[in-house]
Amino acid sequence: MTTTATQCALMIDASTTRDRDDALTITPTTSGWDVAVFVANVADLVPAGAPADRTAATRVETRYRATGAVPMLGGQLEQAATLSATHDRDVLAIRLRVSAAGDVALAGLDREVLPAGSCVAITHDQVTTVLEDPDHAHHAQLSAAAQLAQVLTGRRRAAGAFVVYDLTRGLVSGEDGRLLALPEGHNAAAYVIVQELMIAANAVVAQYAIDAELPILFRNHLRNPVAPADVDRLADLAAALSTVTTTAELAALQGQLNTAISKATYGATVRGHIGLQVPAYTHATSPLRRYADLVTQRQLLAHLDGTGLPYTAEQLATIAHALAAITAERDADSEAAQKARTRRANQAAIAAGDLSHMNDREFLRVLRLGTQAAPPASVATELADRATAGRLHAGHLAVLYTTDHPDWKTLRANLTAQLRAEHAYLAPSAISALQQIDGGQIVAPALDTDITGPPHQRTFATRAHLEDMTTRWHTGPVKKTTEHVALWDLLDIIGGHTPSADPTTPPPAPPEPEPTPTVAPPCAPANHTPPPAAPRTPNPAEALDAFALHAALGGDDDTRRARRRANALKNPVGWLTTLAPTIGAGELHVDTHTEGPPHERTFTVTLTAGPARATAAAPSIKAAKTAAAHAAVTGLFDASTAAAVSHHDGGA
């Protein structure tokens, strides 16, 4: 067995670390670097099948908790095997030769001894100081390690690996494609050095086992079989992290990663590692902390000694399955515990009463919890505030349809009336979100559209139906608007606010065309201009929805009414076009009359949308229509305000 004492080996760990698996030496050469990774020899201290081995197999790995670590091997064995600056230690030495371009080759694999005094512990807190001090005893070696780590990182990125070291935000990539927070107490530069050299060592050990036909536990990481083939290069997703600015965007990026790749697993056969973009990979550098590393170390040492292997390929496959089962069970328990903690935090937030600081995702969780009983006052208030401020999205709205509580039903009806008046476009997204909540049980609704009228003056009649639910027909000059109104109507039926319509009801008859006189009446003088024709009075088939009108105008909140009024006057024609079908008035009716000679026309336009009606004249139809719409909106809000004041005075 070789004794190693020519160069001081660096044990780079956190200041609280007790289990030191590995030590490193890095020597620059004319063609690159020579690297030695010394791994604690645990296999000789813990024979296969021994009580400590059985305990380690059930623990799988060392568990790090807020209250302290639970060593995989127990505290006594861990300290007997951990690398030390003051005691001789048996090690498995993995020697690498790395070119200036980052190509890694195995230069040697053997048993060795690290004598007392040949190792030095450098904590993460000390790494920056050592790198910045040229006179420090370990500056040259640590600087070479940092330079080598950058070369290895660049080489992996060029190969298409998912590599993230976002030191500004403290985000790093795990081996299996997950985004992780930089562990507490870890220095970024030190983390990169250790991570890159361990990846290099594990990759060459895996290749060594393949070449030697030695069965070990490989670490396999595959592309998701249902993902498109173009996700094989994960570098683009890593690069996309630079554009992420919010928690929601970060979650979306992680979702793309989860879609692209499967979870990493152990196996007795090699299947490649997509996250690292290497053909073969294993875990062999942390036998104190991971059982898989201990199993592989036993195989490697037996092969080097020329003795019988502890495990057959079939036994390794059984171990791999057992590790996967234990890990899956623990992950499920951890997820359940996290959900319980989140639930308690949400309950505390609801009780505290102020939810305004929550982002959309956090409020969605609170809303899901709140809909399991009567509406908590804090949730109801926050819903109203977010609806008024335009901060409610389709996911929030969909959650409201998952409860049958009568108080939620009333609150939902009020919010729906408000949102359909201000944010008509939300209906399709809300139904889509409801489908996702229901696990795809709700199929996509179908839309029936009937088109009448000449090409320049189309009238669209639309209704929606889903399973045994059918909405009324909704008409208007804009197809998209009628579709949105129909989908809002469908949401009202789903929520039990309105009954389903008769599916056999035909589309409403198109409006009668206006008669156009071809000659002036005989008794009229030649220079007489006929008076404007009386505007056609709409006769909607359905009664006006007073509740929807009240909500569209802002309800009883003066501040909201003022804001609605200002928004309506920014585009009065568009606002009236949306208002008419919303309140059950059918469509916005436009009557136009022309006066004057061709070179001096005057256009008189009368707009009618339910109770909103006004007439205006201007040199162009557009100007007259806008002026009439402005007057109609102003009159509608003024009349509503006067009625509210009168009602208030009468009630006093």
UniProtKB/TrEMBL annotation:
Species the sequence originates in: Gordonia terrae
Pfam families: RNB
Protein name as catalogued: DRBM domain-containing protein
GO terms for MF: 3'-5'-RNA exonuclease activity; RNA binding
UniProt entry tagged with the keyword Repeat: no
Biased composition (Pro residues): 504-538
Keyword RNA-binding (UniProt): yes
Domain DRBM, chain residue ranges per copy: 571-638
GO terms of biological process kind: mRNA catabolic process
Stretches the record annotates as Disordered: 495-540
Any one GO CC term of the record: P-body
Alphabetically ordered keywords of this record: RNA-binding
Superkingdom, natural source: Bacteria
Gene3D superfamilies, A to Z: 3.30.160.20
